[in-house]
Design goal:
The complex is a heterodimer of chains A (425) and B (370).
Chain A (H helix, E strand, L loop, with lengths): L1 H32 L3 E7 L6 H14 L3 E7 L6 H12 L6 E5 L2 H8 L8 H7 L1 H4 L2 H6 L1 E2 L2 E2 L2 E2 L3 E2 L2 E4 L1 H7 L7 H13 L3 E4 L3 H26 L7 H13 L12 H9 L3 E5 L3 H9 L9 E4 L6 E5 L1 E3 L8 H12 L1 H11 L15 H12 L1 E4 L9 H17 L2 H14 L4
Parallel strand pairs in A: 1-2, 1-3, 9-10, 12-14
Antiparallel strand pairs in A: 3-13, 4-5, 6-13, 7-12, 8-10, 8-11
Chain B lengths: L1 H35 L21 H8 L4 H33 L5 H9 L6 H11 L28 E6 L3 H22 L3 H19 L14 E5 L2 H26 L2 H9 L4 H12 L1 H15 L3 H8 L9 H10 L4 H31 L1
Helix pairs in contact in B: 1-14, 3-8, 3-11, 4-8, 5-8, 5-12, 6-7, 8-11, 11-14, 13-14
Classes of the chains: A alpha/beta (425), B mainly alpha (370).
Chain lengths: 425, 370
């Protein structure tokens, strides 16, 4: 009797709880359907990244048909103009609902330090994102006081590109360290091939970070940004010395070439290798219509196998966002598997989530995703992760000092001076 | 009485624009000067109420003598050369074109339109077109190959060569010698026009400046701790060519209007006196064109200080070889978040423009009164 009663009670409880649950979820979903008004998304995704953003917006509008999405895009390579417009808007007290920002110091050093962002820890807990993203990535967008943005893309900085058939023809192999590269470079030059294709100034910064990762290794690379290793220490100078030797083997018109033109040199067989972020894979397969692995190959940049130097685009919730509810819904979409796997295959990046559906991605991205889940992750300097914007800007001048003087010591001293000036210590 | 109420009405009508100009022009100039005297840009520069402390002229000191700001100094040197070459190039070519058209060739109006046309383009458009033309592996460098000659190897926009180098440490002496020479010239002119006493007085600053430059400077501290070479970067040649291409049509139009305004009598008189065409232009027409030259110089000089768009389109933000203080100001302010130093660069640029504009305005004002 008693047991029967108990069973009945349990059944009733379960039923009631279930009903409550469904009604709750119904309430939640109907509540989300009710989202109205506008949502302004600020980014620098135009050109071939535009369709990816549009796909994401379409997905959002499908879910929340009553919200009018304003796509506020300001074009310009790696956001040079967008960031300026954003800063004037923020200073003028007119923030967009959400804006694109590189994960890392570009977010922390500029916006979090200025107390312009809302802490998103609650959202991470609610959505179970703490385990969905790798810890190193969450560290990059967190301070002691909270988590400040939602990552949507992952790109890899330390990749070396080549054409497999050409390497066979010239009889060289992909170098495993920059020293190996320096050994084979004279051979290539004798054959009339530029050993390393390089582009405009920022791509030299990009090369620098790959060289530094080889010379210093991931631990000391991170120590550099903690201020524990001086830029003008012996190792710090060694990075510049190595770069100086490598620069002997680049195309001498580099500073007038875009990164795409530098990539073209490799594709056309004028140059053997090129170090560029993995957006180059998108350029090669989409624009040049080359077959990955067959017509172009890749490897971690020399000496950095097992380390994934990443940069990540993320979106945060600025304080005073005019349509906060809509923004939160947008951020939920960004962090979801569905949103991530809609956006990234189109942009040519990989998902920051560890559970993404790899069948949606191309051959290159699949290999990158594999590395992403197993490699040691570190932040990139050239793309806003490792150092604050003040340092990044000044580093362009350090590079200029180096390119003009080609003195490793002067460059290292200047780098140390700007680190001090920008509070990296 | 009538006169007074007239004035009040005039003042009332002017008041709205006076207030607007006062706030939006002079108010903001004042604000920029104020910001340039602070340290806005450390840490949380973009906070709602950023921390700002007055630090006096430190930003300016760093710009002109700080170890890390050598790019600013090179930019300043670049700006001087941009101005020099744009003004002289556009004036020279504009004058030649105007004289050629003044001779009334066939299809004059067609040529006039063609020459004037570049001015109607924006700097961004011109910059993009010329960037392609001046690309190291294409455009102009490939022209000779069409007639079988080897391609030109010159790097129009990214040569790392630099000529006319000088040591920035010597800048005070160089300035003193230049200013001293200017005073000497004034003294000479005054002396020649009979003002001997005034001429002697003008000689005094010359002597002081030259003496200091040649001897006294040894006892004043160096402005930089290490020698630093700055000079004329050959990479700016491409940009200078582009700017001259765009603006020589404009000076041509100015000069042509001037030449057409010269009365036929003068030309006849010159001819009767036995002057040939060359002598006519050299001794009669060009002196009459002096007011045109003056306004062209003012306009070109201040355009040369606003070349931001052209440089940004042709060589981008980080090509320090061709950079200009305006580009650096943009990067320092909006990329590095260093608002105070950006404002200091803005003030330096403002002063440079004022150096050209203010004397012009004063003389124009005086002329009108007379």
């Amino acid at each position: 009797m008693l047991t029967q009663k108990r069973i009945a009670l349990t059944v009733i409880t379960i039923l009631v709880l279930g009903l409550l649950g469904t009604s709750l979820s119904v309430a939640a979903s109907s509540h989300e359907d009710e989202l109205t008004g506008k949502l302004e998304i600020f980014s620098w995704w135009a050109g071939n990244e535009g369709p990816a953003l549009q796909a994401l917006i379409d997905l959002y509008e499908e879910k929340y048909p009553n919200v009018e999405v304003i796509n506020a895009t300001v074009t310009g390579g790696s956001g040079v103009n967008a960031k300026a417009v954003l800063k004037t808007r923020m200073l003028g007290g007119n923030p967009p609902d959400s804006f694109q920002v590189h994960a890392g110091q570009e977010l922390i050093g500029t916006w979090v330090a200025a107390e312009r962002m809302e802490d998103l820890t609650w959202l991470y807990k609610e959505e179970g994102w703490m385990d969905a993203f790798p810890d190193e990535l969450i560290d990059l967008i967190s301070t002691e006081d909270g988590i400040w943005s939602v990552p949507i893309t992952i790109h890899r900085s330390n990749v070396m590109w080549y054409v497999p058939d050409n390497l066979d023809k010239w009889g060289v192999e992909v170098p495993n360290s920059w020293d190996e590269f320096l050994e084979i470079a004279p051979e290539l030059e004798e054959k009339g091939v530029t050993p390393l294709a390089l582009g405009t100034n920022w791509t030299v910064n990009h090369l620098w970070e790959s060289v530094a990762l080889d010379v210093l290794g991931p631990d000391k690379w991170e120590a550099l940004w903690e201020g524990e290793l001086a830029f003008n220490s012996e190792e710090g100078i060694a990075v510049w010395e190595k770069l100086d030797k490598i620069m002997e083997y680049v195309n001498d018109d580099y500073s007038s070439l875009s990164w795409q033109q530098a990539t073209d040199l490799v594709v056309e067989g004028d140059a053997a290798f090129n170090v560029m972020g993995d957006w180059a894979a998108g350029y090669k397969s989409t624009v040049l219509e080359l077959e990955p692995k067959e017509e172009f190959g890749w490897a971690a940049s020399p000496g950095t196998d097992g380390v994934f130097m990443l940069l990540s685009d993320s979106f945060g919730l600025p304080k005073g966002a005019p349509h906060r509810e809509n923004t939160v819904a947008f951020l939920k979409l960004l962090g979801s598997k569905e949103g991530s796997d809609t956006f990234n295959p189109l942009k040519g990046s990989i998902s920051p989530r560890l559970d993404s559906d790899l069948s949606k991605y191309n051959v290159y991205s699949q290999s990158a995703a594999e590395d992403f889940s197993s490699d040691r992750l570190v932040g990139s300097l050239a793309h806003g992760a490792a150092a604050n914007e003040g340092f990044m800007n000044d580093f362009a001048e350090v590079m200029e000092i180096f390119l003009n003087s080609r003195s490793a010591e002067r460059a290292a001293n200047a780098a140390q001076a700007i680190a001090k000036q920008n509070d990296i210590q | 009485m009538q006169f007074k109420s007239d004035r009040i009405v005039a003042l009332l009508i002017l008041l709205p624009s006076l207030i607007l100009v006062g706030i939006f022009v002079y108010g903001f100039i004042g604000q920029t000067v104020y910001v340039s005297l602070t340290d806005w840009g450390k840490g949380a520069a973009l906070a709602e109420n950023p921390e700002m402390n007055l630090i006096g002229l430190k930003n300016y000191g760093e710009l002109f003598s700080g170890f890390l700001n050598s790019r600013f100094r090179q930019d300043l040197v670049n700006a001087v050369f941009y101005t020099l070459f744009l003004v002289s190039g556009a004036l020279g070519i504009g004058l030649i074109l105007a004289i050629l058209l003044d001779r009334g060739p066939k299809g004059e109006s067609v040529f006039r339109t063609i020459f004037l046309y570049p001015m109607s383009l924006s700097f961004i458009v011109t910059g993009t077109i010329w960037r392609w033309l001046l690309a190291p592996r294409g455009g102009i460098n490939r022209l000779p190959t069409m007639v079988g000659l080897p391609a030109i190897g010159f790097r129009w926009l990214n040569s790392r060569q630099s000529i006319l180098n000088f040591n920035w440490q010597n800048l005070p002496q160089i300035t003193a010698i230049v200013v001293g020479a200017a005073f000497l010239f004034i003294a000479f002119r005054q002396w020649r026009s009979g003002l001997k006493k005034k001429g002697f007085l003008s000689l005094i600053p010359t002597l002081i400046l030259l003496l200091w430059a040649l001897w006294g400077a040894r006892f004043t501290p160096e402005i930089l701790s290490t020698p630093e070479q700055h000079g004329f970067n050959l990479a700016t040649v491409g940009i200078i060519i582009t700017a001259i291409w765009q603006y020589s049509g404009y000076t041509m139009a100015l000069y042509l209007a001037g030449l057409r305004g010269i009365s036929e009598d003068l030309r006849e008189a010159a001819r009767l006196d036995g002057a040939n065409q060359f002598q006519y232009y050299l001794n009669v027409a060009i002196p009459i064109l002096k007011p045109m030259t003056m306004s062209a110089i003012i306009i070109l000089a201040h355009i040369s200080l606003k070349m931001f768009a052209l440089i940004f389109a042709m060589t981008g933000p980080d090509n320090a070889e061709t950079s200009h203080p305006a580009v650096l100001m943009y990067l320092t302010t909006f990329r590095a978040n260093n608002f105070a130093k950006g404002a200091a660069i803005a003030v330096v640029l403002f002063v440079m423009v004022a150096v050209f504009i203010v004397p012009y305005l004063i003389s124009a004002y005086r002329e009108r009164r007379a």
